[in-house]
Automatic annotation (TrEMBL):
GO molecular function annotation: pyridoxal phosphate binding; transaminase activity
Active site: K189
Domain of life of the native organism: Bacteria
Keyword DNA damage attached: no
Listed GO biological process terms: polysaccharide biosynthetic process
Name of the protein in question: DegT/DnrJ/EryC1/StrS family aminotransferase
């Protein structure tokens, strides 16, 4: 089916012949050796991901949502506990807290669209056990301030790094700032599987062992059940393809950052562009601009055949399930009316990104 868009937001087909051949060869290898469940590629991927981040362990999971749930359970979160999360994230962040029986407490966000450390004190109570910063859009949250607060109040920090594989702050990669970190590798992510996948990073062996138990129905040695858990294992076929994608990651990263640099230069006079601080290396999972004229701009770009998204138009605290908590997140309420994600994926051609920039500039100049 051909896309009706002149510039689509995302294209999940594999255009690059070399990449497609490598992915197919990886699938072929798994089909031939037949160790489909927790096969050698699964183990290789976990080892590579742990090494890549300089952490002791990576535990593969069925999705980013599973990774969050398993990490929260392994951290001992449960009924009666409160967990601070930012107002702006994909709903999986809050849901994973709720699924443990704990209660998410919604913190306001800063201009970087991440959890605002200045709002942490308001959110904390005697029941608070953990903070979950989300590195939204592929920019790492202010981890120095968040970790200082967590240390002062003896809180666990579990990063939701789903959108930030490859991002760095002060040279440290996303996923190395908290007790544990969770990643999604769903097909939309920058490091993407060809289906659902996720992983968790941690350093403590006991924590890792509990994750491994929890991710397969709470069983030890796959037979003896010591606590209830889901089946949250990572698929070996996905692991095999992710190994290919991991080797090619630097190419994606370069292209995403080049597109972002182009947009920065052309769009900064017209809209608020994502600000990359000198100590940051952002990964641009999304390229999110902000403007007071967002709705009119969105209509104009749609009319021009340019597919854009608002991520996520309903803040987590305002979702019907969480609305009864009556959370107050005034800055997030303002910001969410202004944000717009424009196409910025690595498959776009130079001509396409020029079309996007020209259309935005034309909107503001007429
Ligand atoms: C910030 C964040 N957390 C969690 C998730 C959930 O990941 P998954 O879709 O792999 O379950 C996502 C995915 O969109 C996400 O962006």
């Amino acid at each position: 089916m051909t896309t009706p868009w002149k510039v689509s937001f995302l294209d999940l087909s594999v255009h690059d012949d070399e990449e497609r051949a490598e992915l197919l060869a990886a699938v072929e290898r798994v089909l031939r050796h037949g160790r489909i469940v927790l096969g050698p590629e699964h183990h290789q991927l976990e080892t590579r991901l742990a090494q890549h981040h300089g952490r002791a362990y990576a535990v593969g999971c069925g999705s980013g949502s599973q990774a969050l749930f398993l990490a929260f359970r392994a951290a001992g979160l449960g009924p009666g506990d409160e967990v601070i999360v930012p107002a702006l994230s994909y709903i999986a962040t809050a849901n994973a807290v709720s699924l443990t029986g704990a209660t998410p407490v919604f913190c306001d966000i800063g201009d970087d669209l991440n959890l605002d450390p200045k709002d942490l004190a308001r959110c904390r109570t005697e029941k608070t056990k953990a903070v979950v910063p989300v590195h939204f859009t592929g920019k790492i949250a202010d981890m120095a301030a968040i970790n200082a607060f967590a240390l002062e109040h003896d809180l666990r920090v579990i990063e939701d790094a789903s959108q930030a594989f490859g991002a760095k702050r002060n040279g440290k990669p996303a996923g190395t700032f908290g007790h544990a970190a969770c990643f999604s590798m769903n097909p939309m992510k920058v490091l993407a599987a060809c289906g659902e996948a996720g992983f968790i990073l941690c350093d403590e062996e006991v924590f890792k062992e509990r994750l491994v138990t929890l991710r397969y129905n709470g069983t030890v040695n796959r037979e003896t059940c010591v606590e209830p858990g889901p089946n949250g294992r990572l698929d070996t076929l996905q692991a095999a393809m992710l190994l290919v994608r991991l080797d090619r990651f630097h190419l994606l990263e370069q292209r995403r950052r080049a597109i972002a640099a182009y947009y920065h230069e052309r769009l900064a006079p017209y809209v608020r562009v994502p600000r990359e601080d000198p100590d940051c290396h952002d990964i641009y999972y999304t390229y999110t601009i902000q403007t007071d004229r967002r709705d009119a701009l969105l209509a104009h770009l749609t009319e021009q055949g340019i597919e854009c998204k608002i991520q996520h138009p309903i803040l987590m605290p305002h979702q019907p399930y969480y609305a009864p908590l009556n959370s107050s997140v005034p800055h997030a309420d303002q910001v969410i009316k202004k944000v717009l994600c424009i196409p910025a994926n690595e498959k776009l051609t130079d001509a396409q990104i020029e079309v996007v920039a020209d259309a935005i500039i034309a909107f503001f100049e007429t």
